[in-house]
Design a protein that fits this description.
The complex is a heterotrimer. By secondary structure, chain A is α/β, with parallel strands linked by helices. Chain A is built from 9 helices and 10 strands. In chain A, the strands form 2 sheets. In chain A, strands 6-7-8-3-9-10 form a 6-stranded mixed sheet, sandwiched between helices. In chain A, strands 2-1-4-5 form a 4-stranded antiparallel sheet, covered by helices on one side. By secondary structure, chain B is mainly alpha-helical. In chain B, helix 9 packs across helix 11 and helix 12 runs antiparallel to helix 13. Chain B is extended. The two termini of chain B are about 50 Å apart. By secondary structure, chain C is mainly α. Chain C folds into 2 domains: about 80 residues; about 190 residues, Orthogonal Bundle (MetI-like fold). Chain C has 13 helices and no strands. The longest helix of chain C has about 40 residues. The chains are: A alpha/beta, B mainly alpha, C mainly alpha. Chains in contact: A-B, A-C, B-C. Chains B and C meet through helix 4, helix 5, helix 6, helix 9 and helix 10 of B and helix 4, helix 5, helix 6, helix 7 and helix 8 of C. The complex binds adenosine-5'-triphosphate and magnesium ion. The site of magnesium ion has 4 residues of chain A, from helix 1.
Chain lengths: ~250, ~325, ~325
């Protein structure tokens, strides 16, 4: 059935469950993400936001449910997960740049070894991306020589280097000092404007208001509420949402 | 006025003040106490110590023991005191080493006059040096081959352990536990004397190489494990999220980060390995110690034994230093 | 904005993705897994030699089979999506296969295996001697522990005074005694020292050699423990008004001991294992006893028994030391975060 879904639908999640031993973290999540849509995921700590995101590229194996990316069931055993992941970039809270490689090497690594493009082409693409995030002059620096915000922007460039169709962000700014948050959010806003499909776990209200098309609110492993940022922020329906928003606003 | 009080208070707690006002000092650091006890110790040494030669009577042994402890305690009082000037501490250190040497010289019961003739009788070794050097060659050969093999085994086991399969880990842990627990001598002897009954027999050198490689493989795999554990799990996650396969992730992300951590301990393994080649004399490998013992018997002189000990020192001390240096450097880098 | 092309504007790779759906790597596909397994089985049935003294061709077949099955298992094991039970099954199947190959093709005399290796009568005859050896092993181990702890502690404390002159002597001691193989030390003490009038019996020589050697390591371990306590800790304690002794007892020692314990236990285990080296200077400790018995009775059972005894003694100790080490690492990691 999913093969017939409109090409406009990028991600379709159906009744997703995830357990860690006895802990039922995701209790049946269903939602869809359209092409070029920017979806923000919010929710209290431990509600399963990261787990949800990590299931979408199978860094965690869901226990049951379906995930379709462009109509392809990615939980099927016939999927080569490594190829699949090249379609989805991921940016982590803790940057996770490879410390033994320079920035440009970090960016070039996956295109060269997974996509098997030539070194020159990878270099060219890498430099362009570093320019895009404003860090071309740091191409030959090692991650430890960069500030947190710069590291995170390199991490974004690294994810973009695979030319993914979708980008996942897991609290990309929560490990950053306030003055560095802006530069990372700017890069993300640009991406959103350019039409990238994005799923972002974040509590940056300003960014969400400006860039997000839709907000998912998770609590206790359930999708409690979803809607446009205005609807959710100005007129939350569910008690959990109200409670949470009152705390962070 | 408060200014002055503050400065006086500061001056009053300084070491200089305390030394010039003995009433403020703990009595063991009091100069009169230290001088008095030093004089007492000198008198003790001059008049109360037993006659030279190995002490036979219990009283003499006790006497020496008490004197030694007193000397150590007294010098510790000076050396532990950070406020004493360097030159004084150095004199005390020299004095301490000198007194200890003197005690050993006087009371060990050794015939010092025979030392040179017995231990450093190089003349007697002339013409037989090549035997020792031959032994050294075998030692180095065994050491290098076994190091190479054990690093291979260790890397393989370490990498297999990152697969995280409980079954596989069960076997690998069993391997590691068994071979870390069994003394190298026992392993060699069992391989050499018992396995032939099972239809598996090695020559003596092969036995040594097999035992050392398997045994140290277990140690090497522990080093590799430590190296992999030092990698933040986010690194692996990021690599997998980029679409690198498991093997690519191992090759490009994990190994490059693990190897700097592993290298110093591998150097340590090489050092222990070279030392343990001496054990091979139990299974008649013609290595350095074995050769030295043969010469000891044929020449009826301990010089070859002393020579072999010196050769080991010359080969191994630089390697130990290198291992320490690498470890130091790695710690600094991290 | 720079005019760099934007990576998101590439044409949709929907087709690609669809095609990839059927394109998991060849070696991960069911067809390959089962096909190659069947291939190996057919190969084994067709070509395994039937007669026992192996011809070179037969050896080659067995080698191929071993390599092939290991490769197959490696591919199987490296697949993270295969369920764990199938891996367990594979592991045991592999073991059984190797066991079978060894059983079938080694020239060992299987009918005599039990009488050779676990001959209870032989062990019964040898047991009193082995136990005597065990007692001696334990005696040597404990005595050398005492010597090395005392001497090592002494060296570490005097090293901590950090006096240039003393350091030279202590470093020299540590370097020399860590570099000389224990067995060489034993041989020199036992065979060479009598020439200058210092005659020690074999067991004392063994204890002394082990103790002197391990003291060098113990000294380094204690020094590491003392140095691991940060200067700020001592300053903080002094600032709270604790005196030197209280600082030592309440702040320094508890932290140092946590660092020192794992390597210290490891070192004790190591020197206990090294007691076996005393056999080289004819101390009848357990291994020597086993060797003597196996020569006298012309049967390796005492050796095997001794091997098992060593395992029983040392596997728990080795475990203990690695558990301690692991625990320390964890607490350090926590402290760093
Ligand atoms: N690998 C794991 N093993 C066991 N439990 C886990 C694991 N990963 C996450 N959990 C648990 O799952 C729950 C959800 O975790 P998750 O990281 O998805 O929360 P989150 O919403 O991202 O929280 P935060 O805002 O703090 O990042 C938590 O209770 C967590 O303890
Ligand atoms: Mg999270």
């Amino acid at each position: 059935m999913s093969d017939q879904t409109s090409p406009e639908i990028m991600i379709e999640v159906v009744d997703l469950h995830k357990r860690f031993k006895d802990l039922h973290v995701l209790k049946g999540i269903s939602t869809t993400v359209k092409r070029s849509e920017v979806v923000a995921v919010m929710g209290p700590s431990g509600s399963g936001k990261s787990t949800f995101l990590r299931c979408l590229n199978r860094l965690e194996e869901p226990n049951s449910g379906h995930i379709y990316i462009e109509g392809v069931d990615i939980l099927s055993p016939y999927i080569d997960i490594n190829k699949l992941r090249t379609e989805m970039g991921m940016v982590f809270q803790s940057f996770n740049l490879f410390p033994h490689m320079t920035c440009i090497q970090n960016v070039m690594l996956a295109p060269m070894h997974v996509r098997k493009i030539s070194r020159d082409e990878a270099y060219e693409r890498g430099i362009k991306l570093l320019e895009k995030v404003g860090l071309a002059h740091k191409a030959d620096a090692y991650p430890e020589q960069l500030s947190g915000g710069q590291q995170q922007r390199v991490a974004i460039a690294r994810a973009l280097a695979m030319q993914p169709q979708i980008m996942f962000f897991d609290e990309p700014t929560s490990a950053l000092d306030p003055e560095m948050i802006g530069e990372v959010l700017d890069v993300m806003s640009t991406l959103a404007r350019e039409g990238m499909t994005m799923v972002v776990v974040s509590h940056e209200m300003g960014f969400i208001r400006k860039a997000a098309d839709r907000v998912l609110f998770l609590a206790d492993g359930l999708l409690v509420e979803e809607g446009s940022p205005e609807e959710i922020f100005n007129n939350p329906q569910h008690a959990r949402t109200k409670d949470f928003l009152s705390k962070i606003l | 006025m408060p200014m002055t009080t503050a400065t006086t208070a500061k001056a009053n707690t300084s070491a200089k003040f305390m030394r010039s006002h003995p009433a403020w000092m703990h009595w063991v650091r009091h100069p009169y106490f230290l001088r008095g006890t030093l004089v007492a110790l000198i008198l003790y040494a001059l008049f109360l110590l037993p006659a030279p030669g190995a002490p036979a009577a219990l009283a003499d042994k006790l006497n020496l023991g008490v004197f030694t402890v007193l000397v150590l305690a007294w010098s510790a009082l000076i050396l532990a005191d950070g406020d004493r000037p360097d030159w004084l501490q150095s004199i005390v250190a020299f004095g301490l080493v000198g007194v200890m040497g003197w005690l050993f010289y006087r009371y060990s019961g050794a015939h010092w006059d025979k030392l040179a003739a017995a231990f450093f009788d190089w003349g007697r070794l002339s013409g037989s040096w090549w035997l020792l050097l031959d032994g050294l060659k075998v030692t180095l050969l065994i050491g290098l081959i076994s190091t190479f093999l054990s690093v291979l085994i260790g890397a393989a086991v370490g990498i297999l352990r990152t697969l995280g399969s409980p079954t596989l880990n069960l076997f690998l842990t069993a391997y590691i536990d068994i071979f870390r627990s069994i003394p190298m001598a026992v392993l060699m002897v069992v391989i050499f004397f018992a396995l032939p009954y099972m239809g598996i027999s090695f020559g003596s050198i092969a036995t040594t190489v097999v035992a050392l490689s398997i045994g140290y493989g277990a140690y090497a795999s522990e080093s590799f494990r430590a190296g992999f554990e030092a990698i933040h799990y986010g690194q692996i996650e990021a690599a997998r999220a980029l679409g690198l396969s498991r093997w690519q992730c191992m090759r490009m992300i994990m190994l490059p980060q693990a190897i700097p951590v592993v290298i110093p301990s591998l150097t340590g393994i090489l050092v222990s390995m070279l030392k343990d080649t001496a054990v091979a004399s139990l299974v008649a490998s013609p290595e350095l110690l074995k050769r030295a013992r043969e010469l000891y018997t044929s020449k009826a002189s301990p010089t070859p034994l002393v020579a072999s000990a010196l050769i080991y020192l010359v080969v191994i001390i630089p390697l130990t230093r290198l291992a320490n240096l690498l470890e130091h450097r790695m710690k600094k880098v991290r | 904005m720079t005019q760099a092309t934007i990576p998101t504007r590439v044409p949709s790779r929907l087709q690609d993705l669809r095609e990839q759906a059927g394109r998991i790597p060849f070696i991960r596909r069911k067809e390959f897994t089962y096909g190659s397994l069947a291939g190996l089985a057919v190969f084994a049935v067709l070509f395994l030699p039937r007669t026992v003294p192996l011809t070179p061709a037969g050896m080659a077949v067995i080698a191929l089979l071993v390599v092939g099955s290991i490769a197959w298992a490696a591919i199987f094991f490296s697949d993270e999506l295969k369920p764990e039970w199938s891996k367990t099954l594979t592991a045991f199947a592999l073991l059984i296969l190797f066991g079978f190959l060894y059983y079938r093709y080694s020239t060992a005399q299987w009918s005599r295996m039990m009488t050779l290796f676990m001959n209870m009568e032989v062990i019964k005859v040898a047991l009193p001697r082995l136990l005597e050896g065990l007692v001696i092993t334990v005696k040597i181990a404990i005595s050398s522990w005492v010597i090395s702890t005392l001497l090592g502690l002494f060296l570490a404390v005097f090293r901590a005074f950090d006096n240039r002159v003393l350091n030279i002597f202590i470093i020299a001691y540590v370097d020399v005694f860590r570099a000389i193989p224990i067995m060489v030390l034993m041989v020199v003490i036992y065979f060479a020292l009598p020439y200058v009038g210092l005659t020690l019996d074999a067991m004392t020589s063994a204890i002394l050699a082990l103790g002197l050697n391990s003291a060098a390591y113990v000294a380094e371990i204690f020094r590491g423990g003392i140095m691991s306590v940060k200067k700020g800790q001592i300053e903080a304690a002094r600032a709270l008004g604790l005196n030197t002794w209280q600082t030592m007892r309440l702040v320094l020692l508890p932290q140092a001991i946590r660092v020192v314990m794992p390597p210290l236990v490891g070192n004790y285990v190591a020197s206990a294992k090294d007691t076996a080296l005393a056999s080289s200077i004819s101390v009848i400790e357990m291994m020597k006893a086993a060797l003597v018995e196996q020569a006298m009775l012309a049967n390796p059972s005492p050796l095997i028994f001794c091997f098992v005894l060593y395992l029983l003694m040392f596997v728990p100790l080795t475990r203990l030391s690695s558990i301690l080490e692991q625990r320390m690492k964890k607490s350090q990691r926590k402290a760093n975060v």
